Amino acid sequence: MSLIVLTSASGSPGVTTTALGLALGWPRPAVLVEADPTGGSAIAAGYLRGEVVPPEAMIDLALAQQRSSVLEALPQVCQTLPGTTTTWVPSTRSHEQARTLLALWEPLVGALRSLEATGQDVIVDAGRLGLFGHPEPLVNQADLALLVIRTDMVSLSGARSWAETLRERFSRAGGQAALGVLLVGEGRPFHSREVARVLQLPVITTVAWDPRAAEVLSLGAHPPKAGLRHRAAGRGGWEDSPLLRSYRGARSAITGRIRVNEEHLATAGAGRQT
User: Fold this and answer.
1) Distance of CA 224 to the CA centre of its chain
2) Whose CA is closest to 17, among 262, 267, 247?
3) What is the C-alpha to C-alpha distance for residues 8 and 16, in angstroms, rounded to an integer?
4) N-term to C-term CA, the chain
5) DSSP E strands: which ranges in 2-57?
6) Half-sphere exposure of residue 179, counting CA atoms within 13 Å on the CB side?
7) Full pLDDT tens readout for the chain, 274 residues
8) How far apart (Å, rounded) are the C-alpha atoms in residues 241 and 72?
9) Where are the beta strands (DSSP E) in 9-151?
10) How far apart (Å, rounded) are the C-alpha atoms in residues 149 and 143?
């Protein structure tokens, strides 16, 4: 089981859209957790076009943490995203519920880790860093925590101080290899090498800047159809969009990075035993 957490430093770089896009085509069964404390499920309002009223999943988990066990309650609050095989744990409905979640995040890590028994990976939308109620334990204990940013100067400026904070935090815990960057729109105008140099973090992967395709996930727009030229070349519309192609590459890069980190940990552990 892998725990992958996406978060941002400023603006709206596309954390929710990216988390959803990755989860929908994940190579293993996936659980998508909306842990953004700002309230209001962006997936329910956007991708699902407001046609599904999500349950109070996070509040139910928080109450379970107080009364019994998050582990026992987790399967009961998981939903299947309509039309998919992806499991979904919706966000809270209001930012005023963020205080209720503060005591939940730590036990939720353990409950999500238990999904190893069912062969599921977990992808978390953690929203923006620094907000009251932000799920720091999920970020800190992730197998891979990804700082999602766009590649313009404003985004880099906003991410720089948070990148330093995260580097120090993960370094103290001895897990700096579990921290990296996911770029949205490489080359607009900066590239991976430039971003990595400024933030002093590795760029794990990139996703394409493809607003029209992204609206399918963020707003529930109808998937774009292939034009005549693309159909003649045997290429589809939505399925062959730059965004979806980049998600396929991103999934491979993320799972590859986690696998390398696990191998390094196993090697280090074997070395300490000899």
Assistant:
1) 24
2) 247
3) 10
4) 27
5) 3-8, 30-34
6) 24
7) 899 999 999 888 999 999 999 999 999 999 999 999 998 899 999 999 999 888 899 999 999 998 878 999 999 999 999 889 899 999 988 898 998 899 999 999 999 999 988 899 999 999 999 999 999 999 999 999 999 999 999 999 999 999 999 999 999 988 899 999 999 999 999 999 999 999 999 999 999 999 999 999 999 999 987 654 544 444 567 888 999 999 999 999 999 999 999 998 887 766 666 5
8) 40
9) 30-34, 79-80, 87-89, 121-128, 144-150
10) 19
User: And the tokens for 241?
Assistant: 């969009």
Nearest to 231 by CA among 239, 219, 242: 239
Q: Is 81 helix (H, G, I), strand (E, B) or coil?
A: coil
CATH H superfamily, domain 3-273: P-loop containing nucleotide triphosphate hydrolases (3.40.50.300)
Strands 144-150 and 3-8: parallel
As a whole number of angstroms, the distance between CA 101 and CA 106 comes to 10
CB 53 within 8 A of CB 40: no
Burial of 34 from C-beta contacts in 10 A (0-12 / 13-18 / 19+): buried
Cβ neighbours of residue 139 under 8 Å, at least 6 residues apart?
5, 7, 126, 129, 145, 166
Q: Are the beta carbons of 188 and 223 closer than 8 angstroms?
A: no
Half-sphere exposure of 264 (CA within 13 A, CB side): 12
**The residue count for the chain:** 274
Q: Which tokens is 86 given?
A: 């992806």
